[in-house]
Fold:
Amino acid sequence: MRVLGVHRRSIIAATDQRGIEVIDQRALPHALSILMLRTAGDVARAIREMLVRGAPLIGVVAAYGLCFAVREDASDAGIERTYRTLLATRPTAVNLRWALDKMREALLAVPSAERFDTGWRCAQALCDDDVATNFAIGKHGLTLLRSLFDRKSGSRLNVLTHCNAGWIATVDWGTALAPIYLAHDSGMPIHVWVDETRPRNQGALTAWELGQHGVQHTVVVDSAGGHLMQHGLVDMCIVGADRVTARGDVCNKIGTYLKALAARDNGVPFYVALPYPTIDWTVEDGIGSIPIEERDPSEVLSVYGAVDHADPTGPVPPGLTAVDPAGPVPPAQLATPTLRWGSVRPYPAATRAANYAFDVTPAKLITGFITERGITPASREGLRSLYPERVRAP
Ligand code: MRU
Structure:
């Protein structure tokens, strides 16, 4: 998608295969800080510390991590060790396991000497597949947006989204935002209510992306959605997903469930956009079976962001290399030179906090799924109708 009018993917693989360039999402929206990841250790750290985030992106970046590991140790045992390390970086999004499984299978199928090249090709293929998949989600979602818009006699369409399920959460296009970008590009007047998504404020990422692409949007606090829906200000909700169970329960960023409840109470259609690697066919009951990441309470107890000051230093973590890309957008063009990063602490020093990062929305609250294969009801039957190859013989 576009950054300062120039197309960019969220992962750029170095042509000499020495690493991948990723966007440090913690620096957004105030700086476009590009970092080079060269080792499995770099990748594990980038995922764990949320330099890269969003289920599909985590999966593809981890795939490169397993490939890099082969450069140091191409043995079966080495691959297994790095597989386990990368898998443990974040527990909830199933795309991570899906991508690592694909890579491990491809690597173990060839002799050690061929493993790096095979891994590189496989990771590149996962990247391209992610882009094509998300574009297809966008096309199918656009038909929904169009039919809603046609009923509005020309007034703008209002869509509410939660967290960031845009292009920087994937390799390109995004999942929930892909239909919105296509609608905007087709000339439809569309406006997005952007939930701020405390505590990591992924809403800031969504606002940044939409702004870069010229899509109208307004940020609201996480608790505003119900009010907006009661007043007819939301035509539709579209969110992403980190794991969808075989019967259609959806695990996504904390707060998604409450939006679905409000949508049901107000008759607002609530859709989940998901690519096929997000479906965990091994799990039925989302509430009982999906590991919910619990992050450091300090994220809840403080608010992190840019502080008005005179130090332009961005948060490049020690040990990782910042890249000054010859590529599309030099970071300096996006950096706001008078800002530095910092946090404020609104709570008393001794306050305890809990930081559940995801919740589960039961299938019954979801109007439908937007996938790369089309739109389907959020149910076991709905998913199986789109993915008949997953229906096991009795
Ligand atoms: O903790 P995050 O920022 O990785 O969580 C991301 C989300 O919950 C997204 O909504 C989800 O991964 C879908 S991304 C296309």
Summary: Residues 115-150 form the longest helix (36 residues). Residues 325-335 have pLDDT under 50 and may be disordered.
